Inverse folding.
């Protein structure tokens, strides 16, 4: 049986269309969105670059070569060392922060992917919960 | 037409599917659903989600389990929004689909009725963004398309077939509004004429489709994910306080995208730059090309590419930042030579130690030459360039590069040269289209495609000192100031050129000019007598030019006027300048008796900055003019040879090797060569037409002119000596001139016929033609009027009547006249 709305599309087609997309390319597309967001976060926190340059001097402060007396060279070495330590400290901090952010996103993404197939059932779940009359005690 | 009738469950016909178009396919249905989910409905759905979630939450907080129903129901509108955003908004085509509904743009598909006709398609095109793009940019609106589209649904198969054929030809992924416009036009038998009215060809419509696709690509590309390096990208690189202060961070400017050249030749140069800069830890590359070829644009494009972590950039260049140094701000900060060298060394040292910098010296001649706004830093920069450890890009004008090479070969040897050539028309159009993305927004105008095409054509001709695409972009920007109701049309570009350069480039528009052109001979003859043929050939040339039927690659007309002195050769040039070109000051006059040495050629083509009176400088300043080359027979052969290209192609290169365009000028050369022979032949009663060819042959055989020179003129016109009756008309003209002068005094002059006869007798000299007569008549008449005015014999509104006796008294027979004549010689 085929019904036609005034606007010209088929009501059945609406349902078929949205559900087939939801459980087909929509679900796969959501995975792609989560992946892209993870990449953006990873890029934003420069995790790859930070790992590659973990012990590089921070902002190249006193990084240039020094010619001169042993004392001057030792002083430059010390400066460089401090610069590297500061750099490593800052980088490690940002790497940890970035990894936490990534983990949160991964968990959130996993939840979204897991819940996704049940979203069309939410109205039914709502009706069931209403008919049971359950309300969480913490609210 | 084969078709499939679609019926519903009670047997009512609800649609017709043809082999090419299935109204009820899944994609068609989805397209219609997408159409129904308009902005208002989507806002409503979004609001419903929010209200349901908030309402449900409140209910639950209040202990009412009904809240679960609200929360559960919020999923439905949320799903619809999600579906719309991720599939329906840009409904993908069916891969390998062969029917129209598989590949038709979804926004059009969603609007198609069951029994669509070409007329419906034309109407729908006007409702979608691409159709509106064509309406505004090309003037191909829905009304025009409806005019040519049939209202018979049986014609749809032909339209769909054409669209599928064009899609295949062009290798498009879908059938867009642009392709449908092309299909509708192609099926209309008189489409060429129709497009000609819009100054278009079918190829331009194809270019329009490319243009629209390019804009869409830019939008998509600006939204795509780019690896930018993130927060800590520059942590491993050095501080650059001085470089940040005196340099301009190009990378910072381009990080939003949209600067990619997207032009094959420029992309190629960007690739060469990356290869050169990434070798051996850093190279010094010079981009050599004329001003305006896009050297800076290439560097901007490179800067954008380097910031894109996924653009295949070599590891050593990835995320490097390009800093442009400004000679002006360096000079301001360190006016002394020593200070300046110190500052530059500090900046370069910072850039080197930072390890993520590429230095860009735009207009690098400013760093290698001493002058106003420039400074010679060769001694400071040369060691840095030769060491090649700091990546640098040096942009130089071709001519300046040669000059610097002459002065310091070590400097140019240190540079790895990459030539940047001017772009062709198609690439220049692309550059202009890219440029419009930003400039239209800034200037709040919209450019039509025809304006872009006209900009290219006219800038090629009238914009000097720059090469393509710079010259076209310059004119494009200038045209924005003359936009009419926010729209820049081809006409606006014409107006821009006409108003900024004082030339006439478009076809005749106003009635006054049309009238002048149609009656040009009459208007000229108001100022000069006889010489009907000369007046006629010159008038014809102008009419051809203004009607747009002349050869655009030559001057408007090139004429050689031959004849004795005082017969009106120069006067015709003056009359022409006055009647049509807007005043006698529109004559660029060269007395070629001043160009008798071969060295004088340099004076013809001197740079305007050195010699503003040179021919090239004056034509560059005033291209729409009458160029009068007087007494051409006296010029040195080298000077005449210089004119060969001007007469032939309307181009002359100046000392700076710039093309100066003579294509909007009328070139009139005059010569007295063979004047005695003309007088002799006329005296023997021969008509000019009968000995014209023979006379020209004699000029060649006598060595006066070379045949290749004479052959380059459109017309060689011989001027006949004036006879007595014509001289009487000349007297009338002169008296009319005197009356015009006296208009301010509110006094007029009349001269009796006998007095005029006397003036002709007294003023005419066979050697000098009518020239001395002007002075005789002016003196006789003006002196009489002056005396009467001073004596109070005539008042405002009165008339001074001059009779024979008064003239005789003033000119005292022949004696005084001869004196005047001799003064004239």
């Amino acid at each position: 049986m085929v019904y036609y709305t005034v606007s010209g599309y088929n009501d059945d087609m609406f349902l078929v269309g949205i559900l087939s997309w939801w459980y087909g390319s929509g679900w796969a597309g959501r995975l792609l969105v989560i992946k892209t967001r993870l990449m953006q976060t990873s890029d934003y926190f420069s995790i790859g670059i930070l790992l590659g340059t973990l012990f590089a001097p921070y902002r190249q402060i006193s990084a240039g070569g020094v010619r001169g007396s042993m004392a001057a060279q030792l002083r430059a070495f010390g400066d460089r060392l401090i610069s590297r330590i500061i750099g490593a400290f800052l980088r490690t901090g940002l790497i940890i922060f970035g990894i936490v952010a990534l983990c949160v996103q991964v968990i959130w993404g996993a939840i979204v992917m897991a819940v996704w197939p049940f979203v069309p059932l939410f109205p039914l779940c709502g009706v069931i919960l209403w008919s049971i009359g359950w309300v969480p005690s913490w609210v | 037409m084969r078709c499939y009738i679609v019926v519903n469950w009670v047997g009512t016909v609800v649609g017709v599917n043809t082999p090419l178009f299935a109204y009820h396919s899944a994609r068609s249905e989805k397209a219609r659903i997408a159409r129904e989910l308009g902005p208002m409905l989507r806002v409503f759905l979004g609001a419903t989600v929010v209200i349901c979630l908030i309402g449900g939450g409140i209910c639950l907080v209040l202990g009412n389990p009904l809240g679960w129903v609200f929360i559960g129901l919020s999923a439905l509108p949320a799903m619809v929004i999600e579906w719309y955003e991720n599939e329906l908004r840009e409904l993908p085509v069916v891969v390998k689909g062969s029917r129209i509904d598989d590949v038709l743009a979804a926004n059009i598909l969603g609007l198609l009725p069951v029994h669509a006709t070409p007329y419906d398609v034309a109407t729908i095109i006007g409702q979608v963004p691409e159709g509106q793009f064509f309406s505004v940019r090309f003037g191909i609106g829905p009304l025009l398309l409806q005019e040519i589209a049939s209202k018979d649904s049986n014609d749809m198969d032909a339209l769909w077939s054409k669209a599928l054929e064009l899609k295949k030809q062009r290798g498009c992924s879908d059938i867009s509004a642009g392709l449908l416009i092309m299909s509708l036009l192609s099926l209309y038998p008189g489409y060429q004429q129709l497009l000609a009215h819009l100054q278009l060809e079918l190829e331009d419509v194809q270019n329009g489709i490319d243009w629209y696709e390019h804009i869409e690509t830019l939008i998509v590309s600006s939204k795509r994910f780019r690896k930018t390096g993130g927060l800590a990208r520059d942590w491993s690189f050095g501080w650059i306080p001085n470089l940040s202060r005196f340099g301009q961070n190009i990378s910072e400017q381009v990080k939003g995208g949209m600067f990619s050249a997207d032009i094959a030749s420029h992309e190629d140069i960007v690739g060469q730059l990356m290869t050169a800069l990434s070798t051996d830890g850093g190279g010094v590359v010079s981009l050599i090309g004329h001003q305006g070829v896009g050297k800076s644009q290439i560097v901007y494009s490179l800067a954008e590419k380097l910031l894109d972590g996924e653009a295949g950039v070599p590891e050593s260049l990835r995320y490097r930042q390009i800093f442009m140094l400004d000679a002006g701000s360096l000079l301001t900060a360190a006016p002394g030579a020593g200070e300046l060298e110190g500052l530059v060394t500090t900046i370069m040292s910072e850039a080197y130690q930072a390890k993520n910098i590429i230095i860009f010296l735009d207009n690098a001649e400013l760093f290698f030459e001493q002058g106003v706004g420039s400074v010679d830093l060769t001694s400071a920069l040369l060691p840095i360039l030769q060491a090649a450890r700091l990546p640098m890009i040096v942009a130089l004008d071709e001519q300046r590069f040669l000059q610097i090479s002459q002065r310091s070969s070590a400097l140019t040897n240190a540079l790895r040269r990459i030539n940047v050539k001017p772009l062709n028309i198609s690439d220049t159009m692309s550059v202009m289209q890219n440029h419009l993305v930003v400039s239209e927004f800034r200037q709040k105008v919209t450019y039509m495609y025809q304006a872009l095409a006209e900009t290219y054509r006219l800038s090629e001709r009238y914009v000097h000192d720059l090469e393509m695409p710079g010259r076209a972009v310059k004119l494009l920007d200038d045209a924005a100031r003359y936009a009419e109701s926010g729209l820049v049309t081809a006409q606006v570009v014409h107006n821009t050129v006409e108003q900024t350069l004082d030339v006439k480039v478009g076809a005749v528009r106003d009635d006054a000019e049309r009238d002048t052109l149609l009656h040009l001979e009459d208007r000229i003859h108001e100022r000069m007598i006889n010489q009907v043929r000369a007046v006629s050939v010159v008038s014809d040339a102008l009419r051809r030019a203004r009607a747009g039927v002349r050869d655009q690659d030559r001057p408007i007309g090139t004429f050689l006027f031959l004849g004795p002195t005082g017969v009106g050769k120069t006067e015709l040039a003056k009359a022409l300048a006055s009647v049509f070109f807007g005043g006698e000051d529109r004559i660029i006059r060269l007395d070629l008796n001043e160009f008798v040495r071969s060295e004088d050629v340099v004076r013809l083509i001197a740079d305007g900055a050195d010699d503003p009176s040179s021919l090239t400088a004056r034509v560059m300043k005033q291209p729409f003019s009458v160029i009068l080359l007087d007494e051409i027979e006296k010029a040195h052969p080298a000077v005449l040879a210089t004119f060969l290209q001007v007469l032939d192609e309307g181009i002359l290169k100046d000392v700076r090797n710039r093309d100066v365009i003579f294509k909007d000028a009328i070139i009139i050369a005059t010569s007295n060569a063979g004047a005695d022979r003309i007088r002799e032949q006329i005296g023997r009663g021969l008509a000019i037409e009968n000995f014209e060819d023979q006379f020209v042959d004699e000029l060649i055989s006598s060595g006066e002119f070379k045949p290749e020179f004479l052959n380059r003129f459109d017309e060689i016109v011989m001027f006949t000596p004036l006879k007595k009756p014509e001289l009487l008309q000349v007297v009338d003209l002169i008296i009319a001139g005197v009356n015009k002068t006296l208009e301010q005094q509110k006094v007029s002059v009349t001269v009796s016929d006998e007095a005029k006869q006397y003036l002709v007798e007294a003023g005419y000299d066979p050697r000098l033609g009518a020239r001395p007569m002007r002075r005789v008549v002016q003196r006789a008449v003006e002196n009489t009027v002056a005396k009467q005015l001073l004596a109070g014999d005539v008042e405002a509104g009165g008339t001074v009547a001059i009779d024979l006796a008064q003239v005789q008294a003033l000119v005292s027979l022949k004696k005084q006249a001869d004196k005047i004549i001799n003064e004239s010689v």
Q: What stands out?
A: Confidence is low (pLDDT under 50) at residues 1-7 of chain A. The two ends of chain A are 46 Å apart (CA to CA). Chain A touches chain B through 58 residues (CB under 8 Å). The CA atoms of residues 35 and 100 of chain A lie 16 Å apart.
